[in-house]
Amino acid sequence: MIRRINIFQNIDWITVVIYLLLIFFGWICIYGAVYNFEEKVFWDFSERYGKQLVWMGMACVIACVLLTLDSRVYNNLAYPVYGVFLLLLLLTLVLAPNIKGSRSWLVIGPVSLQTAEFAKTATCLALAKFMSSYAFQTGGFRVRNWRNLVALFLMVAVPAGIILLQNETGSAIVYVSLMLVMYREGMPGVILFLVLCCVVFFIVAIRFGDVPIVDAVPDESFGLFLVVMMTLAVSLAFVFYYLKDVQLCKNVLLCTAALFGVCFAVYKVFDVNVRFLYVAYAALALTFVYFMAKLFNVRKLTYLWISLFMIGSVVYVNMADYMFEKVLQPHQRVRIMETLGMTNDLKRSGYNVNQSKIAIGSGGLWGKGFLNGTQTKLKYVPEQDTDFIFCTVGEEHGFVGATLVLGLFLVLLLRLIVLAERQRSLFSRIYGYCVVSILFFHLAINIGMVIGLTPVIGIPLPFFSYGGSSLWGFTILLFIFIRLDASRMEYMPN
Fold it and tell me: From CA 295, how far away is CA 289, in angstroms rounded?
């Protein structure tokens, strides 16, 4: 059933206004980052701020075109568009020139496009199409419906894998954010928790890998010891939460405490070099045997899944060092080590982040004023108009300006969540949450990167960072959802 309505009357103009404010403030910051005092005009198209004006104008045209299209087009063409962009990603991998070690820019005459920025939208459309289908909804995230789960994984992993081959690690990692959409649509929260465990275990193992448990035994890794004990703690938490087996938890805790108590006493009293890592492994092994006994006694598969988690965690953490040394690139290892405080090279690997923090800190409460940023003007911060654009905000506009920008992003994200929840169509709702997830991930990682909380992985700040591909990609991502929201009362949901 079709209801003829005026689409432009139903557009969420609050979201549109926030978008316009963000791209305007972004241009102001780009202008402040690259402005040369010898130049006297705002529209010098040979400079980046002039080029960004062109990108902004074209972005507005793209937004208008997206709003005029029939909303059903996005649903009907989701899979073809996804296929086209997979092909473009492959062509980019083969044909793109090597720029700073990356093959991510497809050059078409005078135009250079980063296809990965547009592939995110295509993946979101395909994901929304698949997850809103009848076949998926009837199976959901149930383990026995493995075909749906495999298809969902491949749909996200394939473009991410191709982008990773292009040596664009940051753009590939963005796809992890789509797990938030899956969680909203019924994926068990434990899966999200397990992903978090993988990240935390890896960080702990790497950060404390070379730290000995006791000075007398330098070859024992404190990092491995911590992860083994964390695995034991998480396993008991699973037992307590899912099985309510309080007695088992008490027994394991008492036995573990007694085991470590005896070993510590031997170490202190008899001055014997006890290998506490082996003691931790022994405690985990005894717990595993206990779980297996409970499994055969009460016939609850949850004990089996928790036991598999224990085994998997041990295998994973013992592979962490190999993954860090052999899988990651040298520059990636250096950035991680710098972020974790394992190195402190302020002249090389830590230079960008250190200068960024200096710039933000020097801004104080109100900032140094527009075009008065010394760190910016003297070009101390590399990529200050792209990935590190936020340091320009902090230096020139201070804590107040940075808070205003972050506040605008927060309002945008909250508004998009409200819009997503009011959708009558599953396709529109799922796509809306895809938009929220990607924008949130970009915002969190970029800001964390600029202030030194996350490694530098080359993720732009949405609507702020210089570049046509980035701006157009985020514009397309956002305005497709605005168009879907505007038509929520036009068509009856499928």
Answer: 10
